[in-house]
Structure formats: structure tokens, C-alpha cells
Amino acid sequence: MRAGRGATTTGTDDTRRPEFGAVPGAGREPVPARKKRDIVTAVIRGAGEPVAPGEPRIWDDAAAAQILPGITSPLAFTLAAGIFGRMCREYARSLGVPDDQVDQTDSWTPHLLGSFHGRVYGNLLHWYRLAGIAPGYRLSRRALEVALGATDPVPVEVAESLSPFAFDSRARRVRSRIRTTGVFLRRALRIETMMREYRVEFDRVCHRYETTEYVHGEHAYAEYRRLDRELVLLWGPLAVLDAVELTLMGAVVALTESYLPQAPQPFRYAAVRPSAALGSAVAPPGRSGAAGFDPDAYLDETLGGIRRRWYDLVRVRAARCAAHREVVRSSRTRAAAILEPMIRVMGDDLAARGILRAPGDIDYLTAGELRGCYDRVPMPDLRFPVAARKDAQAAAEGLCAPVRFSTEGAEVSDMELAEQGWAARADIATARAGDSLTGTASAAGVAEGPAVVIRRPPDRTPGILVTESADPDLVAALPSASALVIEHGGPLTAVATVARELGVPTVVRVPEATAKLRTGMRIRVDGSAGTVTVLSGAGP
After folding, report:
1. Per-residue pLDDT of the chain (540 residues; tens, 9 = 90+)
2. Going by C-beta distance under 8 Å and a sequence separation of 6 or more, which residues neighbour residue 81?
3. Residue 466 forms beta bridges with which residues?
4. Which of 222, 293, 343, 489 is surrounded by the fewest CB atoms within 10 Å?
5. Is 489 helix (H, G, I), strand (E, B) or coil?
6. 503: left (phi > 0), else alpha (psi -120 to 50), else beta?
């Protein structure tokens, strides 16, 4: 959100009250001083973490841009942050981590996601901690860096210091690691069985809610709380899938660096193809992937013997995990669709009771505030924080966000964010002929053609698509796209993966792409070099 300063809490349990920054002066109506004191929450900024002055945090959008693309409402952000944090806690518990150490994760799992000007970022240092819960941290760390597509990984000495929890003795640490490793390996060997069981149980849960008609707000709220608990219990243990995938991908990266040191950058992403594991394309029909980078043909030319067999063994298993992860991602989309009517019924109820001015204002509450409306008496006055957030979201539409930035301490001002790359779109100069934008190479190939800058995914648009976020809905537009340029999102997001399957040259993490490029410009996209060059048609 644009205005205000201060940290946030995401309302991940029933007892916490979000505490955000100051109310911006440009509200929809004047805010009396006494009302400012009564406001439960103002503009959301950060992750709600009690960070010491000067303590650094690194924010990266590679994964978050797919989970919550574009500008995200306060309710969607806090619901996602809350369930994700509790899911990660349940994941640690399911691996047999001792209770004392599971409790220690409460200091960081609620703060894995942060929101700045309505854009959602991963709190990167905590994601490294998350990767450290399972064994094989060094491999997982390398895979995490590849998945992010960042050119500036966290320094090794910093990454090595990021432990998810601490022990009071070396003996306890060793015993716990042995137990966790045993559980991890047993569950890794049961991935296929786990996925079959998950599909059955998830379908059962969804069927119950999809056939329910919510008659009033209290009913919808009770069902929302029940769904929330069931999803945490389902998704928490299944997070081992991500850990196994990271470990296997780390092994693929290590083997690639050892066996194929001259391999082009897109190869490390193309080598782990979901279709290689599933035996069929994951992309939508309508376009052949023959024009794309073929990792099998490249391996046939460069690697053979026992090394090839070992390499294929690891990468196919990694690809299988990646395919399963897409199934889980799709199930989260289904869960969001189930939650939507509950939210709408609660919005109607809160508006009818005079707590909100309009039903749609529920999107500007936090999860903690929503719970407060049904669990606490008297009801809080939410009119002014809602107005403040609406104004901030409208202002955020005119901002261009960086792909990665850092902050220090709990409070972050607009000036500090501007120094980290946040800028008004109107102040960013349009690219000229000959200008080159650089990002992360994601899908090999070169394409030239007219740019089509889009803020929302279309059904089908010919040309080179330039988009702000790696929204999964973009997959439908790929068969008619000649190339793809993504401002926010990593090379292993769903849309980038499908682009490789279809042979669509793709560059991701291109800063300010949607501000510098204009529809109609003729540009060249080099998906192997990670560059976007303006050829002609620049605006004034």
C-alpha cells in the first residue's frame, strides 16, 4: 500500500490484533483525530514481524508473484499469509521436529510473506529457514536460488547462519536431525501414495463445501473457520513435496555444474520438465513445443554412459515432484474458489449490520479484523481503515515495483522504498530504439514482433506479451504468443514452465518492463540471453 509506515501483523491466530502504520491523509473523508486513535488497522506494510532497528530483511517476488499476482487486497494477503504460516508449522511437526523447536518456528513462520503497496513478496531469509527444516539444506538452498532466478543470491555465510530453530545441546540436535531425516526419507519414498491419498481427501473436503449453501454470515464464518483448519491439516504434511523437489532440483543443479559446465542457462529449467515425468504435455493444446529448447536432444549430444543414466534418474524424479506441485497449486485455486462465496455472504452480512458501508469493503479488512467482527463484542469501527486502504490501493496502481529489495528495521517509509526501486510509472522514461532491458533467461529462443503490454491476462492475444506478474491465467494466452516478458515472477512459475513446453521464448524478472515498453513497439526477445531489445516504435 502506498501511504503510511510501520509493520503489520497478518492475523495468523485468533488472539493477535494487526498493528499497521499511520492513516494516509487522503482518505475518502476527513479522519478526526479521535477516530485515528480508534482505527484498528491502517495501511498494511511489511510482514508484521518485530524486527530490531537496523536488522535487514530481503524481499523477493519470484514465488509470491504466482501465489498472489498483481495488487492484492488486504483480506486476500492476510488470509494467505496466515494459512501459509500455519501450514509450514504443521509441516515441521509432521516431520517429527520436537515440540520445543516447532514452537520456535512461531517467531518466523507467520512472517514468510509481506505486502508493500499491495504487492506480495516473500521474506527471503525466512524462506531459507523453511528450506532448512528438512535434511539436505545445501542442495535445497541451491535449488531455491535457481527457482528464484535471481542473479544475486544470498551470501553463503548468511545462508549458512539461517537456522529454523536452535537446540540446547549438540546431542539433542543430532538426535532430532536423525529422526527428522528418517521421517523425511520415508515420506519421500511415499510421495506417489501421498498424492493419491491427498487427491481423494481433498476432493472429499471440496465436495462438502461446494454443495453447501451459506444462508447467513454466521454460518459462512463458521464454515470458513472449519475449511481453514482442514486445509492446514491437508497442506502442512504435503509440504514435504516441496522439500523433496528442492533437494532433487539441488542435485540436478550440482550435477549440471559438474557434468555440463557449459550448458546454457535455460537448460537448468528445461531439464526438469513436468511432461518428462508425466509422459504428456502439461501445456494447453494448440501449439507444438518443437521450437523450444529440447533438453533431451542437448543431453544426447553432450552426455552419455553412466553419467547420463544417473542424471536422468535424478531429473525425472525432480520433474515428477514438479508435476505433483502443479496439482497442489491447482487445488489451492479450487480452495480459493470455495472460499469466495463465504466471503461474499459475510460481506453482505457485515454491510447489512452497518459494520461496513458496502459488501465489497470486506476485501479491505484483514483476516484478524474479519474474525473480530464475528468473535468480539463490541464490533470495531472499520470505516476509516477501509477508506485508508482503498485510497492506498488506488495510489499503488500508479507505482512500478522492484523484483527484489531490502529493508532495515520494522518501519519503512515511502522515501526508503523509493530508494529501493519503487517509482511512479509516470516518472519512468519510455524505452527508445536500441535500449535493452535485462532479466533472467527462462525459455530459450529468439522472437521479434510487436509488444502487447497487458495488466490483466487476456484469453488470446497475438504478439510478444509483456505482463506485470506471472499470473497462472496467462497460460491460456501462450499458444498465440510469439514470446513472453514477465516483470514479476520466477522461471519455475507455472506460466514460465508452460512457455518452455510450448517453445515460447521467455525472459522473467525484467524490472519496469510494463512501464518502459509500450504496446506496438517492435522488440526482440532473446530467451537464452535474458534480454529484451527495443527495435523501433518507441513513444515520445
Report:
1. 333 333 333 333 433 333 333 333 333 344 444 444 444 447 788 888 988 888 999 999 887 877 888 899 999 999 999 999 999 999 999 999 999 999 999 999 999 999 999 999 999 999 999 999 999 888 888 888 877 776 677 888 888 899 999 999 999 999 999 999 999 999 999 999 999 999 999 999 999 999 999 989 999 999 999 999 999 999 999 999 989 988 888 888 888 889 988 887 777 777 776 544 444 334 444 444 444 567 888 888 898 899 999 998 998 888 888 889 889 988 999 999 999 999 999 999 999 998 999 999 999 999 999 999 998 766 668 888 999 999 999 999 999 999 999 999 888 888 999 999 999 999 999 999 999 999 999 888 899 999 999 877 665 678 999 999 888 888 888 888 999 999 998 888 888 888 888 889 999 999 999 999 999 999 999 998 999 999 987 544
2. 10, 12, 47, 110, 112, 113
3. 453, 485
4. 222
5. coil
6. left
Nearest Cα to Cα of residue 540 among 512, 511, 520:
520
- 151-185 in b/e form (b: 16+ CB < 10 A) is eeebeeeebeebebbebeeeeeeeebeeebeebbe
- Residue type for position 537: G
Extended beta strands in 193-327, E state? none
**Cis ω before 378 (30° cut-off from 0):** yes
Burial of 518 (0-12, 13-18, 19+ CB in 10 A): middle
The cell numbers describing 294, all together, are 529440447
* CA-closest candidate to residue 134, choices 286, 221, 46, 246: 246
- Spatial separation of the C-alpha atoms in residues 136 and 524, rounded to whole Å: 40
> Cα(314)–Cα(333) distance, rounded to whole angstroms?
29
Q: Check: CB of residue 187 under 8 Å from CB of residue 216.
A: no
Counting beta carbons within 10 angstroms of the beta carbon of residue 206, is it exposed (0 to 12), middle (13 to 18) or buried (19 or more)?
middle
3-class SS of residue 487:
strand
Name 370's Cβ contacts closer than 8 Å, sequence gap at least 6. Answer: 75, 221, 346, 362
Does residue 310 contact residue 191 with C-beta atoms inside 8 Å?
Answer: no
